[in-house]
Amino acid sequence: MADSVQAAVRNPAQAGREFQATGVKLATLPPAHRISLRAPAASVAALSKALGLTLPEKPKTSASKGSRTALWLGPDEWLVIDDGANDPLQDCAGVEALHSAVGISHRNMAISVTGQGAESTVSAGCPQDLSLAAFPVGACSRTILGKSEIVLLRTADEAFRVECWRSFSDYVFTFLTEAARDASA
Amino acid sequence: MAEPFRISGAGRLTPAKTARFTFDGKPFSGIEGDTLASALLANGVHLVGRSFKYHRPRGFLSAGAEEPNALVSIERDAARKTPNVRATVQELYDGLAAHSQNRWPSLSFDVGAVNDLASPFFSAGFYYKTFMWPKAAWKNLYEPKIRAAAGLGVAPDQPDPDHYSSRFAHCEVLVLGGGASGIAAALAAAETGVRVILADEQSELGGALRFESGSRVDGQDGFAWAQGAVAKLAAMDNVRLLPRTTAFGYYAQNFVGLTERVTDHLAAPGHDLPRERLWQIRAKKVVIATGAIERQMVFADNDRPGVMLASAARAYLNHYGVAVGRQVGVYTANDSAYAAAIDLKKAGVNIAAIVDLRDNPSGPLIDEARTLGIELNLGRAVVKARGNLRVSAMVVQPKNGGAERTIPVDALLMSSGWTPSVHLFSQSRGKVAFDDATRRFLPGAYAQDCVSVGACNGTDSLEASLDEGYAAGAKAAKEAGGKAVRGGAKPKADAGEGWTGGMLGSAPGAGAGTTVKAFVDFQNDVTAKDIRQAVHEGMRSIEHVKRFTTNGMATDQGKTSNMHGLAIAAETLGKEIPEVGLTTFRAPYTPVTFGSIVNHARGPLFDPTRRTATHDWAERQGAVFEDVGQWKRAWYFPRAGEDMHAAVNRECVTVRKAAGLFDASTLGKIEVVGPDAAKFMELLYTNPWEKLGVGRCRYGVMLREDGFIYDDGVVGRLAADRFHVTTTTGGAARVMNMMEDYLQTEFPGLNVWLTSTSEQWAVIAVQGPKSRDIIAPFVEGIDLADEALPHMSVREGKICGVPTRLFRMSFSGERGFEVNVPADYGLAVWEALWAEGQKHGACAYGTETMHVLRAEKGYIIVGQDTDGTVTPADAGLDWAIGKKKTDFVGIRGLSRPDLVAPGRKQLVGLKTKDPKTVLEEGAQVVANPNQPIPMKMIGHVTSSYWSENCGRSIALALVVDGHSRMGETLFVPMPSGVIEVEICSAVFFDEKGGRLNG
């Protein structure tokens, strides 16, 4: 590469987009490292060690440590998100145990839904029971929002992280905006 | 006096809070809390509409959701016109403008009323009999005239400016109906701490307590108790109250659909509020407390304005403070009408007489009526209502015949008893059972985890309803995990109303052999005579009678008519009611707006619009986009003065002369990872993969089991255990699904995993002789020399300082690269390559040029040149089948006799004799254009373009035995004439493929 060439600038989808209604705030979250991790049960211990957290094995649960969260999506599937500097893809690279790690940092983007109206906002398009009893902090699920697939993670009593694919982000943000408006009405 | 029929001191509204409104342009005044119906009645207006078929004048039958007659149009503004609004449900607001329907030129003089005189021609089964012959009448009479004349109201002709919303909710106990038993159930359930949702269609809960003046609960007036209980519920965190919310559908596993009317009652709804909110609620337990609906008496001209249900008159009096007349007659076979007469009498309204079909009714209500000096006519019938635009008298006769007596009235109240509202129970797939003693259908066997309480369960007294509701609520909550409650606050009825009596079917004077218009179904204008006629014409099942007469098929769903219709049919058939059966109750319980069903899914939210990372750049360049599935793809990039044709010609030539940049990001991408990745690929694709070297690519073909082409795409091997698979744009999701399906069900033993990476990578195709020069300055760590990176290879490295998977491949036939970069870098890398490309004379090109270039090379597009019936051999792709392979999806299908027999359609090129003629895609190909029509079609055009590079038109076609017809002349008959074509190779340009390394 010629020295004069500048490194490509990153243009995340919906960067900086925000919406605020009474009791609900939506915001595009900063880029993060993400991998789709697939592995049989026998590999979980080795991968957990490499990733520095215990991969959850119960449906609809997640595990967090530092900037890293692993979301159980299926019997052999996790979404690992790291908001910090360390790419989980690198951490898995040396693991001998049987697994598949695929980088999807750019495939997904995330929107935070916070405030007392957060649950109602997501409930506009997500058929799951999102009460704290059924969907406590740390609960996660690959589900739908309106006509888009999402991965939903509850990060606090009144906060959700909505992950969706990049090209669905405008739809998902717009849907959440309409829903937030109704939730605050 | 502004409202002559409003009785001072009666009702629960606050007279000072007036609201002005108009009806057919005439100004009126009402009170906040009124319905449109009560406000009109307060002004003495009974005539509000014309009936569906006979255009008969109609007034208010009811005071609730069952209303079949009083349908009006509400106009907020030019775009907000809602037809067929029930005036008995519409809450009054200041400035409301309502209009009557189905009349011309005016409500009181309606030309269509001629139908009433011509009614012998419009008897039961009119449509079935009339719409048979002659055939020409369909075009000239039936569709344009008769169907246009039918129907109520006028649909709005502008887009709906309101918005609608949606909410999913979950609870342990869902209570449907907020009358006494429903409130009691909610109170009991709420005490246990579980989540309770209580929904009711009214603005204020209370149900029948609204009119039952004799009810007292916990030492208070029944309705006041209900408001107190509701306030208590509203204050609880675990309770959600949904007033103005109708449960319209009961679906599988306690999934209930409800519509909340959010702004229809507001004078000035804010823009943030949705007009309606669709609730989709999943409940562990459902308590159905939907009450009962009073039925009319079926006698001659029982539809005259002023003739109404007795309970409705009570509601108008006791809740709204409105007298429905000054000289009121009562016709009943049931005690409850006595209560109406008593309430009105006490409020100072004269009761002309009570006419009771029963010979010797007894009980406190009858005694009280006597004590109040009301004239009782026992064992008698009202055989006719007189009057046209308003009832003027009732004609009374002993029930077995005899002298008639005409009693002047200005309103006539009627009751033939109460029908339990088993609609939602029935929708839940529960089976109703006929109770012989009370002659009504009640909930029988349950199909879902729900329970019916109160009047809808046949429980008549207030005390028993409260007990039943409370017990059911407590039990449901306990079973759903509620905590034990000691000494719950169970409501206690101090006084209540309970009635006996009632009848089904036509009353004396409207029975067999009579031809009077005794209405069973007001909304669809079905009379007792029509039901009997249907039976006489051979209908035996109630389902047939219903369809033949349309009884119960209007938007009111037969709430007041079904039982009468059934009884008349049973009587005519000489059978018992249970033998004739009950029609099925279907959703929706009351009409649901399209807005509510669609809710958020309109405009930009109708469907996700997917855009690539370079979308905005392309837009700035003036690109025209086309929809490919949910994607917006740049179609072509016209420059000033260029039309599509000129732009595509320029782009096509530029790519082959210099280079072009194309956004290929929408292609599906699947990363196949694991030690058995190659084995899996062998099974899913026709091609061999085991020996594909790391860093090499191969064009793969995927079949269905039947041997037909399903998808295709270039696959790169990144490592021994890692493939980067591409699919067609449209096929991305289904290929992933099919792979996952086979992996999980057919090859579960393979250690391989699939991950969609379609959106991880932005893909910039750089095609053309200058392509290497354009990317070279930005690439790090990859040797771009032909020897190091030959055609069909892939390397990982960096471009513009970011990671790339760089494919050397071509869908244009030129030397080409597909630069994959993480999607967020797509725009920056594109812009860098674009700037460099400018130096080399490159252009940006869109999907149209991509299509033309690939067609020039005979590269197929799955879904365009294939249609699900094309094998690899048909498409000239048999080279892509691994000859030594013993298994892959579709291998057995390929050897089916039909797939190896001669006479299959095969993909070939077509050249028109006149090179300037461009064929139409989809056009049919024939061997002899002079044969008679219908001609034998031997093929069709799948792709057709003007090729500026070839200087002529080119086309691909599927033609019977096409591969052995090279050089043959065939014909494409078109409306403008026959086009002569020659069959040729599908490769039109650079047949030897030298340009891939050019």
Description:
The complex is a heterodimer of chains A (185) and B (998). Chain A is α+β, with helices and mostly antiparallel strands. Chain A folds into 2 domains: 15-30 and 107-185, Probable tRNA modification gtpase trme, domain 1 (Gyrase A, domain 2, 2-Layer Sandwich), CATH 3.30.1360; 32-104, Heterotetrameric sarcosine oxidase (Alpha-Beta Plaits, 2-Layer Sandwich). Chain A contains 4 helices and 11 strands. In chain A, the strands form 2 sheets. Chain A has a 6-stranded antiparallel sheet with strand order 1-2-8-11-10-9. In chain A, strands 4-5-6-3-7 form a 5-stranded antiparallel sheet. In chain A, strand 1 and strand 2 form a beta hairpin. The termini of chain A are far apart. Chain B is of the alpha+beta class and 998 residues long. Among the domains of chain B are: 1-157, Ubiquitin-like (UB roll) (Roll); 166-292 and 421-495, 3-Layer(bba) Sandwich (FAD/NAD(P)-binding domain); 299-415, FAD/NAD(P)-binding domain, CATH 3.50.50.60; 504-590, Orthogonal Bundle (Arc Repressor Mutant, subunit A). Helices cover 22% and strands 28% of the residues of chain B. Chain B is built from 25 helices and 51 strands. In chain B, strands 8, 9, 12, 13, 14, 15 and 28 form a 7-stranded mixed sheet that branches. A 7-stranded mixed sheet of chain B has the order 41-42-43-44-40-34-45. A 6-stranded antiparallel sheet of chain B has the order 47-48-49-46-51-50. In chain B, helix 5 (180-191) packs parallel to helix 11 and helix 18 (644-657) packs across helix 23 (847-856). Classes of the chains: A alpha+beta (185), B alpha+beta (998). At the A-B interface, strand 7 and helix 4 of A face strand 8, strand 15, strand 39, strand 41 and helix 22 of B.
